TrEMBL record:
It holds the Pfam family NamZ_N. Residues 417-463 are annotated as: Disordered. This is Polysaccharide deacetylase. Residues 1-23 form the signal peptide. GO terms for biological process: carbohydrate metabolic process. Residues 474-676 form the NodB homology domain. Keywords: Signal. One of its GO terms (molecular function) is peptidoglycan beta-N-acetylmuramidase activity. PANTHER family: HYPOTHETICAL 460 KDA PROTEIN IN FEUA-SIGW INTERGENIC REGION [PRECURSOR], PEPTIDOGLYCAN BETA-N-ACETYLMURAMIDASE NAMZ. It comes from the Bacteria. Residues 454-463 have a biased composition (Pro residues). InterPro entries: Glyco_hydro/deAcase_b/a-brl, NamZ, NamZ_C, NamZ_N, NODB_dom.
Length: 689
């Protein structure tokens, strides 16, 4: 019995630990894997899932996606697929095993590196959907995104659905730099025409790749992520992604020190040192430091008989890995005149595969300056930046997913002279690959991001409102958030011309100087609601009192301008937002007793009525959306609902919303809708979301 006591104690301790480890999550964002299980679990329910992953596939709490799926009784985890370095991220390329049965899980594991890099028909036979959860490092040459592209291509051939769980680009989405790959130089370290630093998440890359693949693709976006975030801003813990990328210093150094394949210019110490034979370390450091490259200092250091420098990245948010790498190569060439590898008719050398072109090698051989090398690809880089806008999900405002992002195969349509009959451009967070070249996708989106070419997403489940007395009556409520703004008069002009009324949810801080616009809206029969004073989640969702102090401040300004205090309002982020969990005061609230619950209860006490929506034109994700995309988003979500509340935005960057409005109105009239304003007397509208 005494021998059993330690085991009993251990069993008791283990029983006290929540499944999956600690439930505490101090991250500033939620990963796609978190969002899948929290919001969009229906995407995998009842499915046989094949998971493309490795040791990086963990959620915000550190639990692996493999374990999450194995514990999920509604899902069958049918197979695992591993990229370069295997399922644990430690297997060398020469030891990569094509396939084996996992000794613990009892399911096949297929290696997608070495001889077999594309899932075969036999590998995919047992799966309904392929789930991809891999952490990229932000470089075109990192093979995890190549595995993504190859897997998408195989899924298209075998008519399998792809779901990508989005993750941060660790070096951020703002820096897009380096030579853009030219088609003849495609390889497994360069699968598409993107620059060395693409500035895209793995989900955005999937949407970009899909413009020429056309697989049935769904991206599960992150919550709270912004374009300018680097990994250090996310609050997540870095998981070693491959043998030589153990930490963030190596992530940021990867493109800065690892571009010299075949030149004799080498990296060391996990991409934190660069140098070569015949280089004077002090002169090398002087040249690089004299260039004032942002965010980094170069320390002279000889290593194993080679001269070189060690990178001290002191400000990663300013650091530009590719720019640094190009300067490092150019100055190394000046100092030791290394032989530049050259591609021939017999084959493309590794250096040109890394660069995606033979032009960089030619310029180095000519002794060109780093500035001249940068100028050589500036125009191609500009074109890529313009092209990628259509596939971006995130902007500078924290992203809040209301639906998945769906990109479906294009079905070619016969062109019609009068009106195009091609599928409409997408709904919020959707994508459709273009069918013409060069690709010019329609764009749309919400919440400060440039988006994807469109396709219909699933509309979240809604609580149906009480139908009007006349069962044949269909009502559309046009709503505009965030004004007043320079766009508001244009919206009012269109509404007046079409004899349509709408509801405006006003941000109080935008009222001063725009009082006349509010008075006009009121005088023309439109309804006014509150949308808080600051619209700042960090302020609003700290506590119940903080929220109502902010709301009341905004409402007082509205009342002062119009003589009417609003009783309807809209929550920034919507009433079902999860971002409030991130900002709520942990001393007052927890996951069971949330700040939103307290706010909703208090709003009832104060006689306020909140208004959600069940249709959106997708304009909150981006300032780069189009009027055509906004219209298409509405068309794809409007079916035969009796009541629809359409979310649109009223801001200086939302001119396309005003441009699309006449056609939105015409479309809704054709569908048999009449228009009305939202008032406190019709509270069922608050339930439509």
């Amino acid at each position: 019995m005494k021998k059993l006591i330690p085991f009993l104690i251990l069993a008791i301790i283990l029983s006290m630990i929540p499944q999956g480890g600690s439930s505490a999550n101090t991250a500033a964002i939620q990963l796609g894997s978190d969002i899948l299980f929290d919001q969009f679990h229906q995407q995998i329910e009842g499915k046989k899932v094949g998971l493309v992953t490795n040791q990086t596939g963990v959620n915000g709490q550190g639990m692996s996606t493999i374990d999450m799926l194995r514990r999920d009784r509604t899902v069958k985890l049918a197979a695992l697929f591993a990229p370069e370095y295997g399922l644990d991220g430690k297997t060398s390329a020469e030891n990569q095993v094509t396939s084996y049965v996992h000794p613990v899980y009892g399911i096949p594991v297929y290696g997608l590196y070495g001889a077999t890099r594309t899932p075969t028909k036999e590998m995919l036979a047992s799966v309904d959907v392929l789930l991809i959860d891999l952490q990229d490092v932000g470089s075109r040459t990192y093979t995890y995104i190549s595995t993504l592209q190859y897997t998408m291509t195989a899924a298209k051939q075998e008519n399998k659905k792809i779901i990508v769980l989005d993750r941060p680009n660790p070096v951020g989405g703002s820096i897009v730099d380096g030579p853009v790959l030219e088609a003849p130089y495609r390889s497994f370290i360069g699968v598409d025409t993107i620059p060395l630093a693409h500035g895209m998440t793995i989900g955005e890359l999937a949407l970009f790749f899909n413009r020429s693949i056309g697989v049935d693709l769904t991206v599960i976006p992150m919550e709270g992520y912004t374009r300018s975030m680097i990994f250090q801003d996310t609050g997540l813990t870095w998981v070693q992604s491959s043998p030589h990328i153990p930490d963030l210093a190596s992530v940021f150094g990867y493109m800065a020190t690892g571009l010299g394949e075949g030149t004799g210019i080498k990296q060391a110490d996990n991409f934190t040192w660069i140098g070569g034979e015949g280089i004077d370390s002090v002169k090398y450091a002087d040249l690089l430091n004299g260039s004032l490259l942002p965010g980094v200092v170069f320390l002279p250091e000889n290593k194993d008989g080679l001269g070189g420098v060690r990178l001290q990245i002191h400000e990663p948010r300013l650091f530009n890995p590719v720019k640094t790498g190009m300067y490092a190569l150019a100055y190394a060439r000046q100092l030791n005149h290394f032989a530049v590898p050259k591609s021939t008719d017999k084959g493309i050398v590794l250096f040109d595969k890394v660069m995606g072109s033979n032009k960089i090698g030619q310029l180095l051989e000519q002794g060109r300056t780093p500035q001249e090398i940068e100028a050589s690809y500036a125009e191609q880089l500009k074109q890529f930046k313009e092209l990628r806008k259509a596939y971006l999900i995130y902007g500078e405002e924290p992203y809040h997913p209301l639906t998945v992002i769906h990109s479906k195969p294009v079905v070619p349509q016969v062109p019609v002279v009068q009106k195009p009959t091609t599928p409409p451009a997408g709904t919020p967070g959707t994508a459709t690959p273009p069918v013409t070249k060069p690709p010019v996708p329609n764009t749309s989106g919400t919440n400060g991001t440039a988006v994807q070419p469109p396709v219909k997403p699933p509309v979240p489940p809604v609580q149906k409102p009480v139908p009007p007395a006349n069962q044949a009556d269909k009502v559309a409520y046009l709503t505009f958030d965030d004004g007043p703004s320079p766009i508001t008069p244009l919206v009012l002009d269109t509404l007046k011309k079409n004899n349509v009324k709408a509801t405006f949810f006003i941000v109080g801080s935008h009222v001063p100087g725009n009082e006349a616009i509010l008075k006009r809206a009121m005088s023309e029969g439109h309804s006014i609601g509150g949308h808080t004073y600051s619209h700042d989640y960090r302020v609003l969702y700290q506590s119940k009192d903080a929220f109502f102090n902010d709301l009341e401040k905004g409402n007082q300004l509205i009342e002062k301008a119009t003589g009417m205090k609003p009783t309807i309002f809209r929550y920034p982020g919507g009433s079902t937002n999860t971002v409030s969990l991130k900002y709520q005061d942990p001393k007052l609230y927890n996951k069971q007793q949330t700040v939103m619950s307290a706010i909703k209860a208090e709003s009832n006490n104060r006689g306020y009525i909140f208004i959600d929506w069940n249709v959106t034109n997708g304009d909150a994700r981006s300032s780069h959306y189009t009027a055509a995309g906004a219209l298409a988003n509405v068309k794809q979500q409007v079916k035969s609902q009796k009541e629809i509340v359409i979310l649109m935005h009223d801001a200086s960057t939302k001119a396309a919303t005003a441009q699309a409005l006449p056609e939105v109105i015409s479309f809704l009239k054709e569908k048999g809708y009449r228009f009305d304003v939202i008032t406190a007397e019709h509270p069922t509208i608050s339930t439509v979301k």
